[in-house]
Design goal:
464 residues, mainly beta, Jelly Rolls, Immunoglobulin-like, 29 strands
């Protein structure tokens, strides 16, 4: 009975089956895993790091028949060539598959190849034949190989010197090569064979965003408002219990103001099971997406083991957050009236200035944009909520408020006082403990009125 469902990738220039030139696998050949829905729409970092440029893994299903001209053979120049990436001479191709043994197994392998062949079971190289031959079934017959209970991974490497380029693999009873192996599960039915060229749905990696710019445990579409242009996030990543594919890393991508389209997927600042990310130069609206990646290249958003998917949920799928950054101070305020009305009082008046924001004109109210159909957004943000503070001789006598006048009392007669005024946005602090301030503006000096002298008193005496 054959392995008829595979994930295939390759086309690596090579001189023999033992050659590993023209490729760079992070965990070497023995550490290879494969997933048939590797995401490349936001750049090719995942694919290129794990498999190499232009070598996207793809699923190949063959039929169950013992004839080299029929479908259970992998033809790397035919049914197992994606966009001709394996249609080559003096090169290697790889086929990856999962097989399931309910309580463990010890099958013998029947292997055919054109030309050389290597096979790994759960990362252990157990067959190595640098042959030069045409492919027929069961050319090589191995000793019984121990399989663990549960899912086992098989990596099948074939080297082509020239001409035909193919391979075939079957499993046989560990004590009788002529019999089927009963301890390995058939997939669907006997025509499906022993293998599956995809992952189980619940094998996707997990990610948790613990904090995003001061917001704890944010959920998808959570929003933060700030004037901080350096945005920080952190959390953890993991693999679901029982998943046989290890965790690889954590990636992020962004879109918003100052970015032309989506950024490509990129590693966060500090990756691993505990990760963190810091992004400087953020203004206006920016959306951050975070997701973990397994060693097969499967994203935490991909909850479908065959075709991928896109699931956003903190702790399971991926997560994304919006941040709105207004780091621009309001327009400069000014004192419109500074009038001494007595010996102990000066009255002051002003207008509340308009706030300024990012990618939007000045105004008095909050205005944020992240809606519409991407990428047509303006991604602007203006906080509004402007208040002022008034100073006498650098000490505050009013603020931070939205009033437009104050009477400064309790002053000394015939004394000069100097007044300035500052404005800030988010003065209510309802968007957090931050504000953009103009600093003290203007400098207007006024004297209080002087005391009016009292009329002189005369005394008269009688004439003698």
């Amino acid at each position: 009975m054959y392995l008829n469902d595979w994930i295939v990738f390759g086309g690596y220039g090579s001189g023999s089956i033992s050659d590993t030139s023209n490729r760079s696998f992070p965990w070497a050949e023995s550490g290879l895993y494969a997933y048939p829905a590797v995401e490349t729409s936001r750049g090719t970092y995942v694919r290129d790091t794990l498999y190499g440029s232009a070598r996207t893994p793809f699923r190949v299903q063959t039929g169950d028949c013992g004839n080299a001209g029929l479908g259970n053979y992998l033809n790397f120049k035919g049914n197992a060539s994606n966009a001709n990436n394996n249609n080559c001479d003096n090169c290697d191709a790889y086929a990856f598959a999962w097989v399931y043994a309910l309580s463990g197994a010890g099958p013998m392998f029947g292997i055919g190849s054109d030309d050389g062949v290597r096979v790994w079971l759960n990362g252990n190289l157990f067959w190595d034949n640098n042959a030069s031959r045409g492919v027929t079934w069961d050319q090589d017959r191995t000793a019984a190989q121990g399989m663990s209970a549960g899912w086992n991974r098989i990596l099948f490497k074939v080297h082509n010197g020239g001409g035909g380029f193919g391979g075939v693999m079957s499993l046989h009873n560990g004590g009788d090569f002529r019999a089927m192996e009963p301890s390995v599960s058939l997939q669907s039915d006997r025509y499906g064979g022993y293998s599956v060229g995809y992952e189980q749905n619940d094998w996707y990696p997990r990610i948790d965003v613990a904090a995003f710019e001061g917001l704890s445990n944010p959920q998808p579409a959570a929003a933060v408002y700030t004037n901080d242009t350096t945005i920080n996030a952190n959390g953890t990543a993991s693999i679901a219990s029982g998943c046989p594919v290890p965790l690889w890393t954590v990636l992020q991508y962004q879109w918003g103001y100052g970015i032309s389209g989506n950024t490509n997927d990129a590693v966060v600042s500090s990756a691993g099971a505990t990760w963190s990310h810091s992004q400087s130069g953020v203004t206006g609206h920016r959306r951050f997406h975070f997701f973990s990646v397994s060693r097969s290249g499967r994203l935490s958003t991909q909850t479908n083991g065959v075709s991928g998917g896109s699931t956003w949920a903190d702790g399971t799928g991926g997560n994304y957050m919006d941040v709105f950054v207004d780091n621009v101070a309001p327009q400069n305020p000014s004192l419109s009236t500074v009038t001494a009305v007595g010996t102990t009082q000066i009255n002051l008046g002003w207008a509340i200035p308009l706030d300024q924001g990012v990618n939007i004109g000045a105004g008095s109210t909050e205005d944020a944009n992240a809606g519409g159909t991407y990428p047509t957004h303006t991604n602007h943000y203006r906080r509004g909520d402007v208040g002022v503070q008034v100073y006498r001789n650098a000490s505050g006598i009013y603020g931070w408020g939205a009033g437009t006048s104050v009477n400064d009392t309790g002053l000394s007669a015939n004394t000069q006082y100097t007044y300035t005024i500052a404005a800030r946005d988010n003065t209510s602090q309802s968007r957090g403990a931050w504000a953009n301030s103009t600093g003290a503006q203007g400098s207007t000096a006024r004297y209080t009125l002087q005391n009016t002298p009292s009329a002189p008193t005369f005394s008269h005496c009688c004439p003698r």
